[in-house]
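Notebook entry, structure prediction.
Reason for the run: the old model in the group folder had no record of what sequence produced it. Starting over properly, with the input documented here first.
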Amino acid sequence: MHKSITKIDRWFGLFLLLPSIVIICFMFLYLLGYSGYISFTNLTLKRGWNAMEFVGLQQYMRAFTNPTFWKITGQTFFFISGAITGVVLLSTGMALLLNEPFKGRAIVVALFLISWVLPRTATTFIWSWMFDGQFGIVNYILMSLGIISSPRVWLMHANSAMGILILTYIWRQIPFATLIILAGLQGIPKQLYEVARIDGASTLRQFISITLPLVKRVMLIILVLQTIASFKAFTLVYTLTQGAPRGKTELLITYIFKQVFEYLNFGYGSAVGYILITVFILPLSIIYLLVYIGKE
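New structure, fully documented this time:
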């Protein structure tokens, strides 16, 4: 009797969810399919919907032969490489520190989460004020120490602006990645370390031989999540630099936004969006997944 009631409740729950699931799936597939269709047209609202014509792969060829597209692609991968490397290395170090017992660890973890729970817009405004050319605390500290003689407009210099973008991304993402790695570390049996210490293994040897092999799967998950998140770092770039100076901090996600919503090139913008998904994000995710399955 109990089993039959449980089965009925399960099916009833699915029945209640069915309308929402159908609507969400329909909207997702419809928008995905329609944007795909638009990518094969020359649609631009400057000429209107009536002037839309099917042009085949012309928009994709336009992207692949556009030097600006490849320049922004390079900038995107530079940003992603720096961001992911920083997040993985720093979050691993923080997780190792937080894995050690000490007084007030729970408070430290709670404070550590502040940067993650803050809204993305608030995070970017904090960093933009820190590096502001007139009122920024970074200029004040560096001038007080005699490192620089006059205020510097950090976000208007290409190298420093991209570095600030990467630092801001890392600062926001570290808590989430640290918690996941910390959960993996706490699942490692303490007896393994005790046996290793008895055998005379150093701390570095314990990390290489015990810790790393047992948290590799967790770190692969971090890589997948961070790869997808870094490709979607729209709010960060748009509110902090908007691609300035002279497009040196433009990423593919903001390039797509500007093509569609500022220049109204719906066809070209949709094509670049599909290139981003099918050529970059999807293959990287599949590679990570295959590596993850191979570790099983």
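Summary: The chain has one domain: 67-294.
The old model has been moved to the deprecated folder.
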